[in-house]
Amino acid sequence: MPKLLSTTPRADGFRMPAEWEPHIGCWMLWPERSDNWRRGAKPAQHAFAAVAAAIAQGEPVTVCVSPGQYIIARELLDPAIRVVEMTSNDSWIRDCGPTFLVNDEGVVRGVDWKFNAWGGLLGGLYFPWDQDDLVGEKVLELERDDRYAPDFILEGGSIDVDGEGTVITTEECLLNENRNPELSREQIEQMLCDYLGVQKVLWLAKGVYLDETDGHVDNFCRFVAPGEVILTWTEDKSDPQYEISAEALDRLATMRDAKGRPLKVHKLHQPDPVLITAEEAADIDHVPGTLPRQPGDRLAASYVNFYIANDVIVAPSFDDPRDAAAQQSLAELFPGRRIIAVPGREILLGGGNIHCITQQEPLGRRVISAKGR
Ligand code: KQY
Hints:
Number of strands: 19
Helix content: 10-25%
Bound molecules: 6-aminohexanamide
Strand order of the largest sheet: 1-7-6-5
């Protein structure tokens, strides 16, 4: 039986690997709630199925679905994809799922953070979130991985690591009073060091303009290699994103990572602002306690929200003139991987994108069987 551990990953010699390190597979959750996804989540289900099929070209994929959606998901998902039953409140496994860790011997463990739907009763995005909060534990139990369960609220999309001792995050999210208000900045840094196995925390101020997650870094600025980050950018000084990205660029210019390296910053120009149409907003159910969607609302569209699989990068496209340049930049940054672009608008309508709906599991010392997973 997998154990619940009361030590810390840092003390036990475990660390969160970088996303480009080898995976045994990728986990996803299946969308179905009609107060976040339009038209009863049917367009989102097709979008998630396209993401899963693209990732499956690079590594095994498991999609967790509620009992009532099993047959529907099995029908829409590529036969190569494993489908397992799991209850959840929504479908953002980056945030409610576990953070997987490895040690030098290739043993895999996980951190089962506390989850409060991006802010709980202080601006959280839906209520309740009790089933989401169980997803980390359930996935780790399925994988028979020992589990750390700190009393600490954290979403996986709010952190990004280089696998060599550095994590990057935002003050807007981690220092927000709706996450861990009883902890100081120093105590939060200590939690990150203890549970991600890092030695250095890099703080940006904010994330993408109007990101409903309170500025998740995975939509804004991520490691693409040790010592190198990619940053959402705009040349339009009248766009509110300009000031946020320019301030981040200033901070990044003065930072050193855990190994003492300065950071090389790759700017990735954002798409044109993406606004919810009246037709899209009309097809989302209004439920008290869930963030409402209004026509004209600007969504936090960003090309940075891509997933790094073993052999491929799965990146959002927005039917925007900058799509091709974004894909070209990713191809240059990840020369060993094929870039697969998947339409990101339907996922964005729910509040996130491809990285937010995925969670990588490191290979560690495990081997992938001929049948995959
Ligand atoms: O971007 C993410 N990491 C999740 C967004 C959740 C939005 C819920 N409506």
